[in-house]
Amino acid sequence: MKKTTIIGLFCIALLNVAAIFQSFNFVSPADFKQWLEADKAMIIVDIQEKDAFSRQHFPGSIETNAFPVKSEAQKKRIDQAVAQFKKTGEDVVVICPRGGGGAKRCYDYLKSQGVPEGKLYILKGGIDNWPHREMLLSR
Fold first, then answer.
1. Three-state secondary structure string covering 66-115
2. Where are the domains of the chain?
3. I need a labelling partner for 34 at 20 to 30 A (CA). Which of 16, 41, 72, 112 fits?
């Protein structure tokens, strides 16, 4: 019994270490601002909830309302961005409220759907921490 408990704890520890070392590509607000100003071809996947998207979003964003990207139904809302990527092959930038868990789950989902990691980015700090409010649209 003691040996089984130790092996179980060891397995849990290994899973936690793997999660710590999982990496994501982040784009800084300064670099993203340059991309926007240069009209860089990219797919902007906005996962904010509907009300938040109405208050603030980037021009050309795909509204998915997929936050927090936990259920299969929420993940399916991202499929329109997957389809666009398959047509264009452009870089994909995930926009979420704070650039945390929801963005990482979206990133992982996009990756699982065939978007290469070298083409995936998360806006660091999310839209709530975007310093250039004048660049945002609202409805």
1. CCCCCCHHHHHCCHHHHHHHHHHCCEEEEECCCCCHHHHHHHHHHHHCCC
2. 24-135
3. 112
98 in Cβ contact with 128 (< 8 Å): yes
Residues 6+ apart with CB under 8 A from 60: 44
Q: What is the CATH number of domain 24-135?
A: 3.40.250.10
The model's pTM is 0.84
CA distance 100 to 71: 17
- As a whole number of angstroms, the distance between CA 16 and CA 12 comes to 6
